[in-house]
Design a protein that fits this description.
By secondary structure, this protein is an alpha+beta fold. Helix content is 29%, strand content 24%. The longest helix is centred in the N-terminal third of the chain and has 14 residues, at 11-24. Bound molecules: tetrahydrodeoxyuridine (THU).
Length: 135
């Protein structure tokens, strides 16, 4: 599927979006029927992907972004520099919890790519999470 180039999307942006779309195929979302996929690249150049994984208890659901981030961190990667998110049926803006988790492992100027209406929207993390909680 083609993705339009907007807001100076780079070749890397598009490659990450494609990885996110592939990861979305593994979404386990029988309750919401809202598949989500994410792909991130670390400072060392490694790519990790994730999908949303729902649970009958609802509250135990894990979002696609956090699946990808936790996979990266559990493999020893602590610096994420870009994350791409796609959703099958709607806008892929990350939830507040995922934004906060991003802020733990990304700098405020790192990039969050969100697919909206088949277009890539490109944000700095700080734009979508101003005044992030920090200790
Ligand atoms: N979801 C994500 O995977 N990422 C987000 O940032 C927002 C929500 C998932 C969780 C749930 O499986 C479904 O989307 C509907 O909320």
């Amino acid at each position: 599927m083609d993705i339009k180039l907007i807001n100076k999307a780079t070749a890397e942006d598009i490659a990450l979006m494609k990885e996110a779309r592939k990861a979305m195929k593994n979404s386990y979302s029988p309750y919401s029927k809202f598949p989500v996929g994410a792909a991130l690249i670390t400072d060392s150049g490694k790519i990790f992907t994730g999908c949303n994984i729902e649970n009958a208890s609802y509250g135990a659901t894990n979002c696609a972004e956090r699946t990808a981030i936790f996979k990266a961190v559990s493999e020893g990667e602590r610096k994420i520099r870009k994350i791409a998110i796609v959703a099958k049926k709607g806008d892929a803006y990350p939830c507040g919890v995922c934004r906060q988790v991003m802020s733990e492992f990304m700098d405020k100027n790192d990039i969050v790519l969100v697919e909206v209406n088949k277009e890539i929207k490109r944000f700095r993390l700080e734009e979508i999470l101003p005044f992030a909680f920090e200790l």
